[in-house]
Design a protein that fits this description.
53% helix
């Protein structure tokens, strides 16, 4: 069984710290032996923030881990999301007869958001369409 914990960086700090502590406790228990195959595995995804990476330091180092580095693609992803924002706002403006002023304000607001992801953009656009 594989438990996927996606976007750990999106969790509230207290909850995230508690979860990391529970994972550490789970893997540090005397009944867990790394040589024995466990039927429970965790796949955790997160942005590489220092406070999150430090939370994994208590997990035994003899456990197999993989760290995929995506930091080098951040600028490219950021630029791609900018393009998608512009296209989606253009479509929103056309479909809803938005004024130029409203269109520009909406585009600037979306472009100004920090930590944008494709999922965030999808949900934001859907929320805007619904209102």
């Amino acid at each position: 069984m594989i438990c996927v914990l996606d976007a750990l960086d999106e969790c509230q700090e207290d909850g995230r710290n508690r979860l990391l502590k529970l994972l550490s406790t789970f893997y540090s228990q005397s009944s867990f032996k790394p040589s024995r195959r466990s039927s429970l595995k965790f796949l955790v995804t997160s942005r590489p923030y220092d406070e999150i990476e430090s939370g994994f330091r208590d997990i035994p180092s003899n456990l197999p881990t993989i760290r995929l580095s995506g930091e080098k693609e951040n600028d490219q992803i950021h630029n791609e999301i900018d393009l998608v924002i512009r296209k989606r706002v253009e479509a929103l403006a056309s479909n809803n007869q938005l004024t130029d002023r409203t269109t520009k304000a909406l585009e600037q607001w979306l472009l100004g958001m920090e930590h944008r992801t494709y999922l965030w953009l999808h949900l934001a656009i859907r929320g805007i369409e619904e209102t």
